[in-house]
Amino acid sequence: MRTLEDPTSLVLASASPRRKDLLSQLGLRFIVSAADLDETPLEGEPADTYVLRLAQAKARAVAARFPAAWVLAADTTVALGPELLGKPKDGAEAREMLSRLSGRTHNVYTGVALVGRTEASTVVRSGVTFRTLTPGEIDWYVGTGEPLDKAGAYAVQGRGGFLVASVEGSPTNVIGLPLGETLELLTRAGVPLPWSAT
Ligand SMILES: Cc1cn([C@H]2C[C@H](O)[C@@H](COP(=O)(O)OP(=O)(O)OP(=O)(O)O)O2)c(=O)[nH]c1=O
Q: Where is this site: Important for substrate specificity (predicted)?
């Protein structure tokens, strides 16, 4: 039987340091093994369908390497109305994304998938409202380099905190892994949790 002492019983299928930090907050032991997939959205694909599809694909790809483990994966995207904003390819695209988010409310969706003896998944939405940004603020922030590997070109948990006026819903969802909903998935699947091991 797999126990909490065996770190290979849970695998985080992610290259994101944010997801690793967030999952660590639950006190779980796990190893990290990233999936490398094409993350291009399908034509007209809604944000919730897209993040769920990618989270499941990442978890299934890594589960093939760890058949005895539980594999957890997630995917996060920013949706401005029907439009998906992924990671900007360069500073110019980051500037454009931030200008469009300025003074408006957008949605952040994260899909979370758990694959092992059974499969379970969920999609979580948070609403994020930006302050109205000045061109100088946008230029300075893009110059920090922080936007480049973040969906929507910002990190609410980093220097980008000054961009955000308010967050409605799960804050950890915006950073890349909604902790409450992830914990519920792990609990329902029977994955050993720190407080159930004693
Ligand atoms: C909006 C927002 C996004 N992000 C990050 C979370 C995700 O890491 C990233 C979205 O990219 P993802 O494709 O979801 O994840 P990833 O490529 O970083 O890692 P992997 O697929 O291997 O799990 O944007 C923040 O860190 N803070 C924020 O405020």
A: 18, 76, 157
